[in-house]
Amino acid sequence: MNLEKASYAEIDLGALAHNLSYVQQLAGQDKQIIASIKANAYGHDVLLVAKALQEIGVDALATGSLDEARLLRTQGITLPILLFAFSTPRLTVQAAIEGYIPTLTNLEAATTVANALKKPAAFYLKVDVGLGRLGEPINTARHFVEEVVNLPNLRVDGIYTHVPFAQTSKSDWAERKLQSFDRFITDLGNAGYTFPLTQAMASCCLLAGFLDQSSAVCVGHALYGLSPFESDSGEGINHLKPVMKSVKSKLIHIAHHAKGSDIAVGGLYGLERAHTVGVLPVGMAHGFCRPPGKDIPVLVRGQKCRVLSVSLEHTTIDLSGIDGADTGDSVTLLGRDAEEIITLATLADAWGIQPLEVLMRLSGKFSVRTAETQAS
Ligand SMILES: *Cc1c(COP(=O)(O)O)cnc(C)c1O
Questions:
Q1: Which residues contact 82 (CB under 8 A, 6 or more apart)?
Q2: CATH code at position 170
Q3: Could you read off the pLDDT of 35-76 as tens digits, one per residue?
Q4: How many CB atoms lie within 10 A of CB 270?
Q5: Ligand 1 lining (C-beta closer than 6 Å)
Q6: Can you tell me which atom of ligand 1 is nearest the CA of 42?
Q7: 172, 240, 162, 169: which is closest to 202 by C-alpha?
Q8: What is the full DSSP assignment across 161-192?
Q9: Same domain for 264 and 182?
Q10: Contact 214/182 with Cβ under 8 angstroms?
Q11: Whose CA is nearest to atom 7 of ligand 1?
């Protein structure tokens, strides 16, 4: 029996294709595209997204999770899968043996990995141009590269860095960092060290309009129609379409309570007027919430309703004023219903977090299906 789920999320693969083609346009037709699908494809469902990207055409996928990489391989994804620095040398060796392309970020780990391998495997090297996180610092990176290429069993297929910036006011900083990576790669080339792939730009650099000399870009945010910047206003954002189209549930119960009723329902104690209260099977367990004092709307029959309370597995909403609301009616938590829309930004504002954090809370909690794309 194929029972329809009461609650589900819809992703728009047409929007994904649109965003990818915009990214390619920004990057230039010659640049390879590595699609970042970490964290369950930024909460969109890693398998559906990877299958779509493979069909539309990207050059590689990148994730920080060996489990995710394994899932994709067993489900028919044949694209190269790059692993961002993700674990200990022992697991890095295992990942390389299984055919993924792990990242090496320092000489000590590279040496351990090289000695543990029995035959050659492919790796990427990561250089830190100034984020202060993972990767060999650019000042010592030349030595790192020279040592690594002499280690046994390591085939260096690429070299990359990461220059994220969330405030557009930091774009000068980022541009300088990109240039320092370009100089580093040029110097290496002049000394006879070349690699099949070089990469430095992620969504922020592309959307800021930067160009560099690397052969590839690695993008996540932009593919999903998300802004990598703290404010949504950064250049280029307006061209993107949201891939997370909607999150929906259904009314599973409706209660009518008369004025003066001494009940306590959905945060109402004693009713000064008649109320119609609806219940949906979505709660904190699904990442939904209503911070104290915040008004969160949902949509029923194309109209806004106020959320009264969110408990572990249920949400109650005020249906007063919604004509003809009935059990089984669709409830939109995110997305459009007729003329009304709840955007990711609305929800993020109400929850007091960033849009991507909203997606992370909902990630994996809803069955995800693909939406029909509307022509636009
Ligand atoms: C996540 C990640 C990216 C992609 O960044 P976006 O801002 O989502 O485009 C690129 N490179 C590295 C190393 C990453 O971890």
A1: 34, 60, 61, 62, 63, 100, 101, 103, 124, 158, 218
A2: 3.20.20.10
A3: 999 999 999 999 999 999 999 999 999 999 999 999 999 999
A4: 10
A5: 36, 38, 84, 162, 164, 202-204, 218-221, 228
A6: 8
A7: 162
A8: -----SSGGGHHHHHHHHHHHHHHHHHHHHTT
A9: no
A10: yes
A11: 203
Both 50 and 181 in a single domain? yes
Low-confidence residues in the chain, pLDDT < 70? 1-4, 232-235, 373-376
Question: Using CA positions, which residue lies closest to atom 12 of ligand 1?
Answer: 162
**Nearest residue (CA) to ligand 1, atom 8:** 220
Measured in Å, residue 164 CA sits from the centre of ligand 1 at: 7
Q: For 128, phi and psi rounded to 5 degrees?
A: -100, 110
Question: DSSP letter at 193?
Answer: -
Length of the chain as a residue count: 376
% of the chain surpassing 70 pLDDT: 97
What letter does residue 79 receive in the DSSP assignment? S
Distance between CA 376 and CA 374 in Å, rounded?
Answer: 6
Give the residue numbers spanning the domain of 199.
13-231
Backbone phi, psi, residue 182, to 5°: -55, -45
* CA 227 and chain centroid, separation: 11
- Which amino acid is residue 134, in one-letter code? L
Convert the pLDDT of each residue in 155-171 to its tens digit. Answer: 999 999 999 888 888 88
**Residues 98 and 187 grouped into a single domain:** yes
Answer whether 198's CB lies under 8 Å from 160's CB.
yes
CA–CA separation, 13 vs 25, rounded Å? 18
- pLDDT number for residue 375: 47
